[in-house]
Design a protein that fits this description.
The protein has about 400 residues and is α/β, with parallel strands linked by helices. The chain has 13 helices and nine strands.
């Protein structure tokens, strides 16, 4: 039984709809309402359904610990946001990696971010002359509306539509799809998929790095050392640093001596990245060591950790392409071009996530097997690089 806490701040029509949908469900149960507004109508709606509610002020949500204690008291497995007006604290995000989802009343990445909620979204859609709007269900990370997209559904926006008209269409999509998507996530393969576990960690690391955007910033890994989450966080951080080292080395004004120093630093970063990929593959080898391999099992073209590596870099691409879409110093053609590229990257992320999860499922069933071929980089080895060993002669 998966136990769900709904976070809500308003009238609670979505929270009520979700709770009714799962009433009597043998796999999923809404056990708690958490709010930041003691006067919100959602309390009465949930009370009628026999679901207890609790309210915390904004500063307590920012702290995180009291909220986590209440969630633990109710043995909450997943958090579902339904019109919740507070940002989720880092402490709560760390406690529920890949298990917090939200619904946004627009087709992200358009019309998302701070201040984009409720009527504000629909007014912006109408003012821009959009031909469609819709809903986006996404994982929650430390930035407003930037978590991995899980599901989208669209509706037409007519030239005669008012913001109220658009709101009515979007609400209908919310009521129809949100409970179904929650059910699919929590009861299907995606509920415990590795991609749903690692994507929020990558996004957290990407966001943390860009808070300083400094290749020399110290890593402050929020996850317990030795855990796979800790390795994933460090993996994405290394990728982010290397991404920006590559930017620096391409500066036309760079001094030649700095090129050499950066090139050697990039080489070291590549070595760290490869070492960490092997450690992550070690995690998979340990996870599936007792699996009985089928006689006709096949091997994949790449190990699971190298797919994880590509997924980490893809999250960085998505972050930077989203930045380009929103750059204020560019023209509409640039932003439109980048929006198309962003859509392709988001599709690629979904496909790569699915492929990774399918590979791990096949390994878990014994239909595929994995090997780890330890790196044999010759240029870093003093006994194999002729420039290095030649100096000893």
């Amino acid at each position: 039984m998966k136990k769900v806490a709904i976070f809500a701040s308003g009238s609670g029509t979505n929270a009520e709809n979700i709770s009714i949908y799962f009433s009597g469900n043998q796999q999923i149960e809404v056990t708690l309402l958490v709010s930041n507004n003691p006067k919100a109508g959602v309390h009465e709606r949930m009370s009628r359904l026999g679901i207890p509610s609790v309210t915390f002020p904004k500063q307590v949500f920012a702290e995180g610990h009291p909220v986590l204690k209440k969630l633990k008291d109710y043995a909450v497995d997943w958090i579902v946001l339904a019109g919740f007006m507070n940002k989720i604290s880092a402490e709560i995000l760390d406690a529920y990696p890949g298990r917090i989802i939200n619904i946004h009343p627009a087709l992200l990445p358009k019309y998302g971010g701070k201040g984009m909620y409720g009527r504000h979204v629909h007014e912006a859609v109408v003012a821009a002359g959009e031909k469609e709007s819709g809903i986006t269900v996404h994982y929650v990370n430390e930035q407003y509306d930037e978590g991995t997209v899980i599901f989208q559904a669209s509706c037409p926006v007519l030239p005669t539509d008012t913001p109220e008209d658009v709101a009515a269409k979007v609400h209908a999509l919310e009521y129809e799809h949100y409970p179904r998507v929650i059910a699919s996530l929590l009861s299907g393969e995606h509920a415990d998929s590795f991609s749903s576990r690692c994507l929020p960690v990558f996004e957290r690391a990407t966001g943390d790095y860009h808070a300083t955007d400094n290749v020399d910033a110290p890593v402050r890994n929020p996850f317990e050392p030795g855990t796979i989450e800790s390795q994933l966080y460090l993996k994405n951080w290394i990728d982010a640093v290397q991404w920006h080292l590559e930017d620096l080395i391409r500066d036309p004004q760079i001094q030649p001596e700095n090129v050499v120093a950066l090139k050697r630093r990039i080489d070291r970063s590549n070595q760290e990245r490869t070492d960490l990929v092997e450690q992550i593959d070690g995690y998979f080898l340990e996870t599936y060591k007792e699996t009985l391999v089928c006689p006709d099992a096949t091997i994949n073209t790449e190990s699971p950790a190298w797919a994880v590596d590509r997924l980490s870099i893809l999250i960085l691409k998505i972050y930077h392409m989203r930045q380009e879409v929103n750059r204020p110093d560019t023209d509409g053609i640039h932003r439109e071009t980048c929006q198309r590229k962003l859509s392709v990257l988001l599709e690629q992320k979904q496909d790569l996530s699915t492929a990774l999860d399918q590979l791990l499922a096949d390994i878990g069933k014994g239909q595929k097997y994995m090997k780890v071929y330890r790196q044999m980089k010759m240029y870093n080895d003093p006994s194999l690089n002729p420039i290095l060993y030649g100096r000893k002669k």
